[in-house]
Amino acid sequence: MKELTSSEIRQMFLDFFAEHGHKIEPSASLVPVDDPTLLWINSGVATMKKYFDGSVVPENPRLTSSQKSIRTNDIENVGKTARHHTLFEMLGNFSVGDYFKKEVIPWAWELLTSDQWFGLDPEKLYITVYPKDQETRKIWESLGVQDSHIYEDEDNFWDIGQGPSGPDSEIFYDRGQEMNNISEDDPENYPGGENERYLEVWNIVFSQFNHTPEDTYEPLPHKNIDTGMGLERMVSIFQHAKTNFETDLFLPLIKQTESFSDRKQYGQNDADDVSFKVIADHIRAITFAIGDGALPSNVGRGYVIRRLIRRAVVNGKKLGINHAFLYEMVPTVGKIMASYYPEVGKNADYIASVIKSEEERFNATLNDGLALLNQVIATAKEAKSGQLDGPTAFKLYDTYGFPVELTREYAADAGLTVDEDGFQAKMKKQQTRARNARSSAKSMGVQSDLWTDFKEDSEYVGYQNLVVDDAKVLALAQGAAIATDAQPGDELAEVIFDRTPFYAEMGGQVADTGEMIDNHGEVVGRIVDVQHAPNGQNLHSIKLEKALKQGARYKLVVDRARHLKIEKNHTATHLLDQALRNVLGGHTQQAGSLVEQHYLRFDFNHFGSVTDKDLKKVEQMVNEQIWREIQIETVETDLNSAKEMGAIALFSEKYGDRVRVVKIGDFNTEFCGGDHVKNTNEIGLFKIVSEGGVGAGVRRIEAVTASDAFDLLHGKEQLLAQTAGLLKAPQEKEVPHKVELLLEQIKTLEQQNEALQSKLTAQQASDVFGHVQETKQGTLIASAVKVPGMQQLRQLADSWRQKALSDVLVLATTAGDKVNLLVAVSDDKVKAGVKAGDLIKAIAPAIGGGGGGRPNLAQAGGKNPAGIEKALQLALDYLNQ
């Protein structure tokens, strides 16, 4: 069998159908366009619906694609079976009212078995057909498929209700009983049965009926073809992998995960292997989903991404990985998929930053959540209740960010169930408070209605001071209830102070974090998040280390270093906003932003891509404002006065009568309630990391400032220095020239190598062509030669045909344990009935292979070099019949 990489298999599939007149459709975004019926693109045909329903007529009715797809309906099986994935690629060819069974079935067989293509052993392929579809069975039989390799199955009928439907034919590959999970005499041990021996590799759907509302099946006016071949499954065959995970699509990710875990190795423990597989699977789906514009959230696609990230993080914990690591795997995904999805590598920095942010948020409370979960599981097992109570499951979801699916999986691993009714009851109570709820994007608690009636004023003083010495606790809550005191433990305390230096998340700027200190100088608690209460006060979520009392006074200290970094990034977003307007035009509008400690993200409306030239102009313009050392002014005024100042407002925001305006000299004026530097020179440096589209008409820029920008540039400088060292370039500026010289040298060596191969082939031709044998059906030249492979055998055959040296030519060569066999027949002998294809089939078994081809030229491959002499003798015997 051929040794093929995943990229070679994908490209070979597409090339085959391109040669048969198909247009190669690019892999569409995982986020469906104009299709509200789908959460994700979940198959190749999902992107073709507009063609099959007739709403759009394709330029070419023959289409082929390798479509990335996401399915999460049975996510719990990922890692536990050989072939369950959340993200996978579906290879497919499609006919929109053009060809049908008589064309597609022979093509499928040719692609699978021809040595020019996949070259699979026909003896290892089995077919299933719909019992009433005898036409399909006869076509398979006409191709030489043995009756014993065709199974009839009532399930071979594709029908999803009203609409197009029809029989289908599935192709299975026999991996041998040694790969099976059941005994040889098990009744499920057949193609289509529940076993690991017979692997389904391709499904061909013959869409020929319309399933009517009356539940009848009427012939379609235009018959269609829809096929699906799982790339991951095909790769497992060519790479002799027991599961899809031991292939070049997943192993690099598994190996990288091993490097994060200092005590776990893949293949040593079944439970650990599940975690390795879950992580490798999920990071692929997460990376592609974010790259296609979806972002973590609590609804829809965003919830799927968040759930995948959290499942992967939890499985990392099982492997002993206690730090953010998923984001570091994004470049590896990019490298694996680079040949067909170069955009993943190009957007790797942005994708990684989104994942890292989400990981860090989840990790902030995950350890406490896991401790609680393990404690509850132990208690339930000890009490032999067999169930985790619903309120606890909800608490894990509400306070610690655990999706109930994760709790359910952990409980199942311990032989327990979850009280679903109790969980749903708590969830419904939360939903009644949705109007006042804050996002759980931070994996923190959700606001409850207990704060709705609290209207006492609280002052934010963080614009001037990052420390308040005597902040009074106006009100506090713990465990979703108002309290007069709070104790250290699993529950976070929620506190409103009369004054606070802590910024509450708003306008894209993340919340401040820091400490609360008592009058003895001891830390009482760590403030991990701040959101706005229903009536606007800053509501602090605090992980307590000591007891907390209402009415008591505490010192509040913001993490100053973190806060100053956020300030720099926030002011930089204003500079970036204005620079984009100046360079791209006034039509650009902010569509969202995120200001974190180590980076900033800025979304803006703009149709079309941003050129590298324009992006450099934007970056240069921002830095020029930084180096101008512009003083930042903030003004509180009425709404109309702010508008007269020319302040930029966001259409998505609602403003009150009094507004805060941030003015950066004569360069930019915007409505903003966030924190900013006092002078642009504090930002130091601004560097764009990535730019790309995140949706229809929406672009995203990710950038870094100050020390993070320096670190980025320093890393690139080190990379350049390393490259210069490898190239032995005395100065870094000589690197491009050295690379050019190296490329020219490689090109020259390749040309010399090709010339040498041609010369060696020509020398062998003179030796081989001198030995002509007489047979009953004409003259024969049959010999083993020493050439690299089939390409050189074809060159010898071309030379033989031009010189008309004999009637039949049989050549063989070896490369390691592989054998290539070629048969050529002159045109005269073809007319006389001697067929190259017949001859190759007669002699190929001697080398342990099979083959086929045209009447005048055929080829075969095998793995038995010792059989070459026998094959050559069989050719002589065949022609002497």
Topology:
Blueprint: H1 6-19, E1 23-25, H2 49-52, E2 62-70, E3 87-96, H3 101-113, E4 125-129, H4 134-142, E5 150-152, E6 157-158, E7 163-174, E8 198-211, E9 217-230, H5 231-238, H6 251-260, H7 270-291, H8 300-318, H9 330-336, H10 342-346, H11 348-383, E10 387-388, H12 390-400, H13 404-413, E11 417-418, H14 420-431, E12 459-460, E13 467-478, E14 482-483, E15 485-486, E16 493-497, E17 499-500, E18 514-517, E19 523-532, E20 538-544, E21 548-549, E22 553-558, H15 560-584, E23 589-595, E24 600-605, H16 612-627, E25 632-638, H17 639-644, E26 658-664, E27 668-671, E28 686-695, E29 698-705, H18 706-727, H19 735-768, E30 773-775, E31 778-784, H20 790-803, E32 808-815, E33 818-825, H21 827-831, H22 836-843, E34 850-853, E35 857-862, H23 868-879
Helix pairs in contact: 3-4, 6-7, 7-8, 7-11, 8-11, 11-12, 12-14, 15-16, 19-20, 22-23
Features:
single chain, 881 residues, alpha+beta, BirA Bifunctional Protein, domain 2, Elongation Factor Tu (Ef-tu), domain 3, nine-stranded mixed β-sheet, six-stranded antiparallel beta barrel, 23 helices, 35 strands, ATP-binding
* Count of structural domains: 5
Instruction: Classify the beta-strand content into a percent band.
Output: 15-25%
Biggest sheet overview: 9 strands, mixed
Shape descriptor: elongated
CATH first level of the largest domain:
Alpha Beta
Binned, the helix content reads: 25-40%
- End-to-end Cα distance, whole Å, is 31 Å
- Here the CATH topology of the largest domain equals BirA Bifunctional Protein, domain 2
Average pLDDT for all residues: 88
CATH superfamily of the largest domain: Bira Bifunctional Protein, Domain 2
Return the structural class. Answer: alpha+beta
Number of helices: 23
Total count of strands: 35
